[in-house]
Amino acid sequence: MHDWRVIIFSVLLSLLCVQVYLYLENGQDEAIQSPTAVYMNSSLESRHAGPRFFAPNAVDFVHASQAGIPAVVSIQAFKTGEWLVSDDKMISEGSGVLISPDGYLVTNNHVIANSDYIYVRTFDNRKYKATKIGVDLATDVAVLKIDRKNSEYINYGNSDDIHVGDWVLAIGNPYHLNSTVTSGIVSATSRNINLLQGANSVESFIQTDAIVNEGNSGGALVNTDGKLIGLITAIFTRDGRFEGYSFAVPANLVRKVSSDLIKFGSVRRGVLGISIENLNQDNTFYHNDQIKTGVFVRKVNKGSAAEKAGIREGDIILRIEGQMINQYPRLQEKVAQYSPGDTINMEILRDKKMLETKVVLESIVTTEDKNIRSDIGIRDLGFELRTLAPNDPTSLGEKGIFVNSVYRNSKADESGIKPGFIITGINGKLVTTVDQLIRLMQNNFFLEIKGYYGDKHQMQTYRLYRKNLFL
After folding, report:
1. Does one domain contain both 193 and 164?
2. Quick one: 333 and 233 in the same domain?
3. C-alpha 353: how far from its chain's center?
4. 261 and 153 housed in the same domain
5. Catalytic pick among 95, 136, 140, 209
6. Which of 266, 288, 309 is the last residue of a domain?
7. HSE-up (13 A, CA, CB side) for residue 303
8. Is 88 contained in some domain?
9. Among 74, 92, 95, 110, the one annotated catalytic
10. Are the C-beta atoms of 113 and 102 separated by less than 8 Å?
11. Catalytic site residue 140?
């Protein structure tokens, strides 16, 4: 019996040794086959004790750069006139993006505003005199054309598909450093920074942290597929240089505007005919305090497209053409992508019920008064002005400039000026015509405006500080 016990014990011990050996061999093989691209601690013990974190795949910007760089051009705008010392003077520099093989390109209106002629230099260092096709003050988009066939150009991407966190490239010509590429991420969408101050302005910028500087205006914001998703327009700055935030007009809006300018010479923009505001605790109370997205309909204009479609005051607009509407700039941007006569599908919330409706967009009604001026300098401040005629009943027999309208959130609006104000002086000098006012405003960042409302003996003074945010 003793011998049998020894034999059984020996067999069991042998089997145990074999199991230990196999376990150690499998462990070594597994360690050899494990990837080396991991975050490793200094000790071998901790290396096997915790979870393994694989390094993320690198983002390839080469393809996007190669697709975008040849399509981006540099722009120089010149002005001639009797007030200039020399025959001509360069008043602005910026960038542009070729969007077709026959030489059409987009840029910002503020790059070429007030210019008499424009030169474009392409990636291959060829110089062309550009023709101005049209501008849209409401989006700060302009279209130019150069006489070049089979030119390099970039394809549009779908800016509705971008998300916060997506990688993007900014391509332009800052500080004469042509074809400069910088990278960043989409920091925000549908951003309104009160930069475009026209009465019908559409401001729903893509915000990014890609570095841009003076000369990048009108350049390309490109996704990793090498497609245009935005037109670089502005930076938010205190000292005039890049401080971390840049802004671009979404490509879907650029495509609509540029297409209209090329086909018709002006933008055909449809409207709903409503007043809207972002959601807050007050306007969502009667619906559902858990509502997180949408815009609140504050007012519906009589006879408008919205009223005809059955939209009511108090409704919350949730989606347009399946796209979520999270704030009012996004709604403005989405509607601006369509033309008068187009039908758009909308989802709304009313009395805690989801409804769907179709809206046929209508045209923007504009004034026919040819005397009302909204030149670029005036518009930047937020005015619409007209020179008072001698027989104008509002003039009280005096000469001056009548403030016809003041744009919401403009510098003029912030100063306190109201429609009906009659301007008689700028920075201590008398003015009687809009042209005089424009000349006195040029190159002045501080403006002291004097005038009156109904009683010329009750003179009032307003002060405006104009800080240019354009690149």
Report:
1. yes
2. no
3. 33
4. yes
5. 140
6. 266
7. 2
8. yes
9. 110
10. no
11. yes
CB 95 within 8 A of CB 172: yes
Please state the domain count of the chain.
Answer: 4
Cross-strand partners of 180: 172
Secondary structure string (H, E, C) spanning 119-180: EEECCCCCEEEEEEEEEECCCCEEEEECCCCCCCCCCECCHHHCCCCCEEEEEECHHHCCCE
Q: pLDDT digit of tens for each residue in the chain (471 aa)? A: 456 666 666 666 666 665 656 555 555 444 434 333 332 233 333 334 444 444 455 678 999 999 999 999 999 999 875 444 455 688 899 999 999 999 999 999 999 988 889 999 999 999 999 999 989 988 999 999 999 999 999 999 999 999 999 999 999 999 989 999 999 999 999 998 888 766 678 999 999 999 999 899 999 999 999 999 999 998 877 777 777 889 999 999 999 999 999 988 888 888 998 988 888 877 766 566 667 789 999 889 888 999 999 999 999 999 999 999 989 899 999 999 999 899 999 999 988 889 999 999 988 754 444 567 766 667 778 778 888 876 665 556 678 888 877 776 678 888 888 878 899 999 889 998 888 888 888 767 788 999 988 766 788 999 887 654 445
Q: Within this chain, do residues 68 and 14 fall inside the same structural domain, yes or no?
A: no
Asked whether the whole model's pTM tops 0.70, one would answer no
Instruction: Tell me if 369 is assigned to some domain.
Output: no
197/255 same-domain check: yes
Kindly state whether residues 222 and 285 are assigned to the same domain: no
Residues 39 and 98 in one domain: no
Q: What is the CATH number of the domain that holds 199?
A: 2.40.10.120
385 in a structural domain: yes
Query: For residue 81, how many other CB atoms are within 10 A of its CB?
Result: 9
76 and 40 together in one domain: no
Q: Where are the extended beta strands (E) located within 361-459?
A: 362-363, 383-387, 401-406, 422-426, 429-430, 446-452
Domain of 24, in residue numbers: 2-49
306 backbone dihedrals φ, ψ, rounded to 5°: -65, -45
The β-bridge relationship of strands 205-208 and 180-191 is antiparallel
Q: Look at residues 216, 240, 266 and tell me which one is the last residue of a structural domain.
A: 266
Is the residue at 368 inside a domain?
no
Which residue of the set 217, 246, 258, 374 is catalytic?
217
Whether 217 sits among the annotated catalytic residues: the reply is: yes
Query: Which residue has 């989801």 as its token pair?
Result: 354
92 is catalytic: no
Q: CATH code at 304?
A: 2.30.42.10
